Amino acid sequence: MNQRRLLILLFFLIVAASRLAWLGARPVAHDESLFGVYAFHLADGEGYKYDPMLHGPLLLEAQALVFRALGDSQYTLRLFPALCGIALIAALWLLRPWLGRAGLWSAALLLLASPSILFYSRFLRNDAPFLLASLLCVACAGRAFGRGEKFYIIPALLSIALMVCIKENTIFVLFGMACYAALLIGMDQFLGRERRRRYNWHHPKLFDHPTLPTRRLALSLIFPLCFLLGALLFDQLLLTAILPDLELVGSAPFGVKFTLNRLAYIGFIAYLVLALSCNYAIQLLAERDGRDGVLHRALELIRRNVWLCGSGLLAATLLLLLVFTVGLTEPRTLLMLFRQTVAYWWHEHAAQRLGGPYHYYWPRLIVYEAPALLIVLVGAVGWLAQSRPARLIALPLCLLMIIALAIVNRGGFIDDLLNGPLACLHMTCIEHLLIAVMFIYWPLCYGVIQLARGRDRFSVFAVFWFAISLLCYSYAGEKAPWLTIHITLPLIVLAGLCLNRMSAWIEHRKTPRPWRIVGAALFALVLIWNAFNCWRACGPTSGDPREIIVHNHTTRELDAVAIEIQSLDEPVAICGEAVWPLTWYLRNQPDVLWEKPEDPHEFRIIVCNVNDFDDVDEISAIRERIIMRRHFELSYIDPYNPIAADAATPIQRWINAYHHLPVCCEYFIHRRITQKGTDIISASCAEQKIKVLRLD
């Protein structure tokens, strides 16, 4: 075995140890208990009914298979996400044509030492499997359409189906890919607008025929209608024939019952969009537009590999059906599931059940992903220094834009708009608007300049992927720490590209060896710092509520309560907040009442909320209050909320934020905080308490 293979083996042993060691040591969290209990019931043969609150059913089905194969325990509870976390780092190899050797190893090391990705690779949620599916989708689509490797078409389509089966975040990934494709095609056609030639298809007379406009118009009108009717028939007739016990929508023939006006309105809009798209696509098939013919090459790839595309679509459709129907045991149609999912999550987005400020993810990225952010920042400064158009055109326009926003905002005009008519943007101050504008402006500038020069297109996609992910998750009304990793992955891929370019630049300039050693030492130091953060947030003794990567921390006191209950052979009553996660701990425990008992004297142990069962206190011999969860709401890394009352202008807000900088550094390095009500407003601790009543 040569040194390279030995190094790869040693690296993956470290990866496996980081994901699998002490996997069951941490107490089970609220969300983990939800997924674990439903997966346990599915593995036990009790079935599963799709609920959009738990996202796609793939996680529960995979976890049920783990329980069936290896048994149910706190270790196997987190085994499937841990395996996905290992596979995520292995899947980076698919990006090697763009990352290069230096970028691939750098990105792999950053993924290994990422506290947020490591934590949620050891946590039973949908996010680690979704991260793996999204990376596979990006890599396979890039290899298929960017490099012409046709056999990656089927994995690309299957990975999209996997994302749909895992979580609704699929729309953000596909939106980022669509934005990049639109810029790529638009720039290609703009640069090649004077270099057109006829496209010689294998049926050349088809487009040379004098009746081409008539045929194109006929196809543009007929194809969308057939597509819509086919989708409706497939969803309502074909699946009804396969699954006769299907719960139909209404009592009309074939279960089709819509409001006529709504169906006509939606159908007309969809038909119009499809007709225009079809007309444009046929025109592009007839002519090879653009400098490089990007769209032409993509369509040509699909045409020449129509059987591969058809097989991929068929396999993806079958995967969706099998997963969402739990192996055809729970009959339902994809259209019904789509309507149910969209309605539920749109309501959650509007209600902002887990709300947060627009900049919610920035503090978490700075605290846990500072190395990747610093690398990308250095790469951006280097690109700005080397790119003459960026310095002479893009940078002055950016400064003028900032000055214009400051002038328009005189008297807090924009702040009033954001808190009034534009409240739907979920921004509360001009800084939020400025962040959004910059993350739209600079990726566009970078994309236009790089594509105009014919440079690496994947770097443009990586910039778009990171920027659009940050913008989409910042806009979304549902904000949670676990969503941070969906921004972290494109950030780390972008950091790998930056390090690959830095390595090439060092080789080209023939930088002296001492400077290379200094650079490698600095990179090693930031990795060690992140590894230290990984130990604090994800180690076997973790559970510190000051770690903001977790929504709430289940205390080990609840573990002790669960162990005591399991040791008894008597009825137990549990209600209130303690139901989750004790439902997981007591999944095999008989005689558990999961609601308020009518006669408390029948139970020796009652677990309830602190404010409940005042009547039970009178007959209880021992009363014990236990903190079930802790959650710190940090405000000193959020300089806008605590100082909004005495800081009306952006300048005052930034001055106050500067005064909070020492406190931020104390948290960043030592996780030191001060409670609310002291001289510096910095944090408040939200605790959920339960009461354990032992009746003698």
Question: Can you lay out the helices and strands and say which pair or pack?
Answer:
Elements: H1 3-20, H2 30-43, H3 58-70, H4 79-91, H5 96-112, H6 115-121, H7 127-146, H8 153-166, H9 170-191, E1 197-198, H10 205-208, H11 212-242, H12 260-286, E2 287-288, H13 294-304, H14 306-324, H15 334-351, H16 361-368, H17 370-386, H18 388-408, H19 413-418, H20 430-452, H21 457-475, H22 485-509, H23 513-538, E3 553-554, H24 556-567, E4 572-574, H25 579-585, E5 592-593, E6 605-609, H26 614-617, E7 622-634, H27 650-659, H28 661-670, E8 683-694
Parallel strand pairs: 4-5, 4-6
Antiparallel strand pairs: 1-2, 3-7, 6-8, 7-8
Helix pairs in contact: 1-4, 2-3, 2-25, 4-6, 4-7, 5-22, 6-23, 7-8, 8-14, 9-20, 9-21, 11-12, 13-14, 17-22, 18-20, 20-21, 21-22
Can you tag this structure with a few keywords?
two-stranded antiparallel sheet, mainly alpha, 6-stranded mixed beta sheet, 28 helices, about 65% helix, about 700 residues
Your description of this structure?
With 696 residues, the protein is mostly helical. It has helices spanning 3-20, 30-43, 58-70, 79-91, 96-112, 115-121, 127-146, 153-166, 170-191, 205-208, 212-242, 260-286, 294-304, 306-324, 334-351, 361-368, 370-386, 388-408, 413-418, 430-452, 457-475, 485-509, 513-538, 556-567, 579-585, 614-617, 650-659, 661-670, and strands spanning 197-198, 287-288, 553-554, 572-574, 592-593, 605-609, 622-634, 683-694. The strands form two sheets. The chain has a six-stranded mixed sheet with strand order 3-7-8-6-4-5. Helix 2 (30-43) crosses helix 25 (579-585) and helix 21 (457-475) packs antiparallel against helix 22 (485-509). The termini are far apart.
